[in-house]
Specification:
It contains 15 helices and 13 strands. Helix 3 (about 55-65) packs across helix 4 (about 80-100) and helix 6 crosses helix 8 (about 165-170). Helix 14 (about 320-330) links the parallel strand 12 (about 310-315) and strand 13. The two termini are about 15 Å apart. With about 425 residues, it is of the alpha/beta class. It is globular and about 60 Å long. The chain has two domains: about 5-205, Rossmann fold (3-Layer(aba) Sandwich); about 215-415, Rossmann fold (3-Layer(aba) Sandwich). It is about 35% helix and about 15% strand.
């Protein structure tokens, strides 16, 4: 938290009271860095990881600077995924309401007509690039009156191939707008995009680099035999934990894993691109509430997930590169909390993980020799036997403990305690 108050940053009493009603009384550091510059009308470049409080860093001054009697839409937020767009709307809806502003999400997978009508009546639109272009092409509304443009997780939008669409959307906004650019990295394409579309921007860097692993996360790399992955996963899920997010490579792999867990009495839900928007929202709601405390997801489906109760991220399948690893484990250890990131490593994946860990500056404990025998611990100097293998940097209370079968959910009511991201 910052020592500065929201009031001291120039935020109105109506917005301060709305924040307090949501249990937010003091700004995070990134909010203290950014809010004043935005209220002063400056363009802003922010290099900050997810979970740092960045949504309110742009949401508060955006709401503060708009007028209910102004044109609609007068502010636009671009986000890479429908989940992130929905969460941004949820995050800022109450403070927008405090100033009589309407806000809506625009993304694919839902009916065009109703969404177009809601967007045309809204002061603030939070959109994914593709669906926004669809509505603009239909003439549902224009961006001629947009005075504030936010690009959130800009590096992820570029990674997902949205650059042409992003460029076209930016071109549809007035050239004299204010632009806020948020990204985990300002290197490469993200940096070039930022420099091309901002003017005399204030630069703020906060938290660990997007290319490094968060210090709040304990990283464990567990040597396993490939055929033991499910057994190892069940062992980890049976330990002392809160919510667990499990990453797999493919959509079909997610569904298969949920079925296999179910046959062993471990309830889980899957979230991936083949699911409808309604199915994805239902899965996320069941997970966030704790009704089902294990979510199996692909990388793309999990982008933008912001659930406060995730204590464990488990890489059932090895991430394809170090940035994917950072993004995955970034779902835990958010907003000042701690978390555990666990990666299962087969013998033929150890070289890849050693390179990944070296790039990120974290210990892997895998050595350079052959994988340990099945069930043997590695790395932490703990000789106890356990299916699934090694444990690097073990912390008491994580990944061990009694069986959880039949244990009631311990997460009900967590919605009010979401991390502000």
């Amino acid at each position: 938290m910052s020592n500065q108050s929201f009031t001291g940053l120039g935020v109105s009493r109506a917005v301060v009271d709305a924040l307090a009603a949501d249990g937010i009384n003091d700004p995070f550091a990134i909010q203290s860095l950014v809010i004043g510059d935005v209220l002063d009308g400056r363009d802003v470049l922010v290099k900050s990881p997810t979970g740092s409080g960045k949504t309110l860093a742009f949401g508060i001054p955006m709401v503060q600077s708009l007028e209910a009697a102004g044109p609609r839409p007068s502010a636009l937020v671009l986000a890479p995924t429908r989940e992130l767009a929905s969460q941004i709307v949820e995050e800022i809806r109450n403070i927008a309401r405090a100033r009589a502003l309407r806000v809506c999400a625009v993304y694919g997978g839902v009916g065009l007509m109703k969404q177009a009508a809601n967007a045309a009546r809204s002061h603030i639109i939070v959109a994914t690039p593709g669906r926004l272009e669809d509505l603009l092409a239909r003439g549902s509304f224009t961006l001629d009156a947009v005075r504030l443009l936010v690009l959130d997780e800009a590096d992820r939008m570029l990674d997902m191939g949205f650059r042409p669409a992003v460029e076209r959307v930016i071109a549809a906004c007035p050239p004299d707008r204010q632009t806020l650019f948020f990204s985990a990295t300002l290197d490469g394409d993200a940096g070039r995009l930022a420099r091309a579309h901002t003017n005399d921007a204030a630069l703020h860097e906060h938290g660990p680099s997007g290319r490094r692993a968060a210090a709040a996360v304990e990283h464990r790399f567990l040597p396993i035999d490939s055929e033991d992955r499910v057994k190892a996963l069940i062992g980890e899920l049976s330990g002392d934990r809160d919510l667990a997010l499990v990453f797999v490579r493919t959509k079909h792999g997610a569904d298969r894993l949920v079925k296999r867990l179910g046959t062993h009495g471990v309830p889980a839900v899957a979230m991936h691109g083949n699911k409808s928007q309604r199915q994805r929202e239902q899965a996320l709601a069941r997970f966030e509430s704790g009704e089902v405390d294990t979510l199996v997801a692909t990388d793309v489906a999990a982008r933008g997930i912001d659930v406060a109760g995730i204590s464990h991220v488990i890489n059932f399948d090895v991430p394809h590169d170090h940035e994917a690893y950072v993004h995955r484990v970034g779902r835990t250890g958010r907003a000042g909390r701690t978390g555990v990131g666990i990666t299962f490593v087969a013998a033929d994946e150890r070289r890849q993980i050693r390179e990944l860990a070296g790039h990120l500056g974290i210990e892997h404990g895998l050595g350079t020799g052959h994988a340990p025998q099945r069930g043997q611990r590695s790395g932490a100097g703990n000789g106890g036997q356990r299916s699934g293998g090694g444990n690097v940097g073990q912390r008491s209370g994580g990944g061990s403990g009694g069986q959880r079968a039949g244990r009631p959910p311990r997460h009900s009511g967590r919605r009010g305690a979401r991390a502000r991201a």
